[in-house]
Design goal:
The complex is a heterodimer.
Chain A lengths: L13 H34 L2 E2 L10 E2 L3 H7 L6 H32 L4 H13 L2 H11 L6 H6 L12 H30 L3 H8 L4 H29 L3 H6 L11 H10 L5 H33 L1
Antiparallel strand pairs in A: 1-2
Helix pairs in contact in A: 1-12, 3-7, 3-9, 4-7, 5-7, 7-9, 8-9, 9-12, 11-12
Chain B lengths: L1 H14 L4 H36 L3 H4 L12 H9 L2 H32 L5 H10 L5 H14 L6 H25 L3 H9 L4 H12 L1 H17 L2 H6 L22 H21 L1 H8 L5
Helix pairs in contact in B: 2-13, 4-13, 5-8, 5-11, 6-8, 8-11, 11-13, 11-14
Classes of the chains: A mainly alpha, B mainly alpha.
């Protein structure tokens, strides 16, 4: 280990005191983060133990213990397991499409020599758009009557009621997510490939490895931590999906695109105002995200060790 | 850079191998690669182009998606600003975005300094734990924010939104600034300390100027994510502090004729972000991957 020597000027009291000073610099951030995340999370959990409706005084809240959870988990709530199903199906399909397409694009970007910066800059545009605006744009394009997608498909007799048919509505959300997030994967993997030592790849190329072999056996093992990180981030972001689906389908038609995020909204923040029950859904979503975020930090540590 | 050149030479040497069919195949392969990349990019930019075109159409052209050639008008944009008070929402977005980025950067700088300069034990664990707060879904914690805001009378204020946005901005600020600050050699600190400089002086007068580009790109990344934020804004504001992305709600139940306005709103909301992203495009990918690349 090559620890840098402690800063001089901390005199003989040494490392102990230095660390304490360092902690003082981090303290304000810790206090703020504690207040804006841990405190609300605890409050969220407490609320989930009550039968409480929006717009009523706190005194009207009725203690129900874990009722809100048992109702969700043991089938007395018809909406929960379907929402888990939609969320999981979306999580898997969206991660697969974005990671596959993005990796292919990254390999292609790496294999060409010109126009890389133009292409990567243009690819950024969908990615940086607000997801809710992305949903809005596609809502416009997928409109039954006036949408451009149907206008293009009409000559082939293939126009569809995109947002009005359950399976197509799900597909629409998936298409929008893929459109917006594939560049995320492509650009990070591409930057990852560019950042690792090029010599092994050159050696393999001179030895006549084809593009697939090159990626599978040489490039991929080198960028594996970055790849893992990207997959973990995609899993989290697609599990959290709310904005895009809100603008595009609002969970419909029926409950065909109702993810856990949209369920929180429907229960707690839309007409019903069942804050307690919505909080229980939110807690479960939060737990899932926390589990997945462990993978992110694990891969980040690996990537950091890779950089030295 | 040198890697690219070496790769180029390698490709060329093998390409000039005697068999002509090989080089033709290689050429075709290269053309195919460019074709795929260009087609993807074009298709992925089409929604943006289509929205821009729709925003510039008259009502009669809007409801005809096949009207590829039309006489452009700025009517839709004008309608948004005169009829729907869009300037108000834009200025709310600006106030909230700047209002959250400034404290996030200030606290982030202090924390990054503390993490990188004091040989803290578990430094990496503290940093990654902080970063994992960035991943908390807004829709999950918006409920407690809504209730606390309601009881404190803070619903529909800039302040509540600024505080809520710290949940995503502060962790990212700490993480990115920590990355930039680690690149500053400790010898610089030591030299300044020998000259009798205090720690805050070193941070402000030595570190901040050195890492100014890093601070700027961190700030821009935070601005982008604050500008784009929807869930908190949607449920913690109503009119006074309502931000731009939530105006999407105006257009969810409308029919064909307002599509022009809808498209214009999407364009107005996206243009600032494109400018921001262009300003920091070199570091944007690094920021999006939390500095992993």
């Amino acid at each position: 280990m090559t620890h840098a020597p402690p800063l001089r000027g901390s005199r003989r009291s040494g490392l102990q005191r230095t660390r304490r000073t360092g902690f003082l610099f981090v303290l304000p951030t810790l206090v703020v983060m504690f207040s804006v995340t841990i405190v609300p999370a605890i409050f969220l959990y407490l609320i989930s133990l009550f039968d409480y409706n929006r717009g009523t005084p706190l005194s009207a809240a009725r203690w129900v213990g874990l009722d809100n959870y048992t109702r969700l988990l043991f089938g007395r709530d018809d909406n929960f397991w379907p929402a888990v199903g939609v969320t999981m199906l979306f999580l898997i399909t969206a991660t697969v499409t974005t990671v596959l397409l993005g990796t292919v694009l990254a390999i292609l970007l790496d294999s060409v020599l010109r126009a890389r910066s133009v292409l990567t800059t243009l690819m950024l545009i969908p990615l940086i758009m607000a997801p809710v605006i992305a949903g809005l744009i596609w809502r416009l394009m997928l409109n039954d009557l006036y949408g451009v997608v149907n206008a293009i498909l009409a000559p082939f007799g293939a126009s569809q009621s995109w947002l009005g048919t359950p399976s197509l509505a799900f597909l629409s959300v998936l298409i929008v997510e893929t459109w917006q997030w594939t560049p995320f994967v492509a650009l990070i993997i591409f930057a990852g490939i560019q950042s690792v030592d090029a010599r092994p790849r050159e050696a393999a190329m001179i030895d006549g490895a084809n593009a697939f072999q090159l990626f599978r056996h040489v490039t991929f093992p080198m960028i594996q931590p970055i790849f893992g990180l990207v997959v973990a981030l995609r899993l989290i972001d697609s599990m959290k999906i709310f904005d895009t689906a809100y603008a595009l389908t609002q969970g419909g038609p029926g409950k065909a695109t109702e993810t856990l995020g949209l369920m929180v909204w429907h229960y707690g923040l839309y007409q019903t105002g069942w804050i307690g029950r919505a909080a229980a859904v939110a807690v479960l979503l939060l737990v899932l995200v926390v589990i997945l975020s462990n993978f992110v930090t694990r891969y980040l540590k690996k990537a950091e060790e890779l950089q030295g | 850079m040198s890697a690219t050149i070496i790769t180029a030479t390698a490709t060329r040497t093998s390409a000039s191998a005697p068999r002509r069919s090989g080089s033709r195949l290689r050429l075709a392969l290269t053309a195919l690669r460019y074709a795929i990349l260009i087609v993807w990019t074009a298709v992925s930019l089409f929604p943006f182009y289509f929205t821009l075109a729709t925003s510039l159409k008259l009502k009669r052209d809007v409801i005809n998606p096949n009207s590829w050639f039309f006489s452009p008008t700025l009517d839709n944009y004008q309608d948004l600003f005169t009829g729907r008070n869009f300037l108000h929402y834009l200025s709310n977005s600006a106030v909230v975005s700047v209002g959250t980025v400034v404290p996030a950067l200030a606290l982030g700088l202090l924390a990054a300094y503390g993490l990188t300069r004091f040989e803290m034990t578990k430094e990496r664990s503290i940093a990654t734990t902080l970063l994992s707060f960035r991943m908390i879904p807004a829709i999950a914690v918006v409920i407690p924010f809504f209730l606390i805001g309601q009881f404190a009378g803070l619903i529909d204020t800039h302040f509540l939104l600024i505080v809520a946005y710290l949940t995503m901005n502060l962790p990212l600020a700490v993480w990115m600034l920590r990355g930039f600050m680690r690149d500053i050699p400790l010898e610089i600190d030591e030299a300044a300390q020998l000259d009798g400089a205090s720690r805050l002086y070193i941070l402000w007068r030595v570190h901040v100027p050195i890492m100014a580009p890093g601070i700027a790109s961190t700030g821009i990344l935070l601005l982008i994510q604050s500008w784009n934020e929807f869930a908190f804004a949607q449920f913690l504001t109503s009119t006074a502090a309502r931000t731009f992305p939530t105006t999407v709600g105006f257009f969810l139940s409308i029919t064909g004729t307002s599509f022009g306005q809808m498209a214009a709103a999407a364009i107005i909301g996206t243009l600032p972000v494109i400018v921001f992203a262009f300003l920091m495009r070199k570091r944007l990918v690094s920021g999006l991957s939390y500095g992993a690349v």
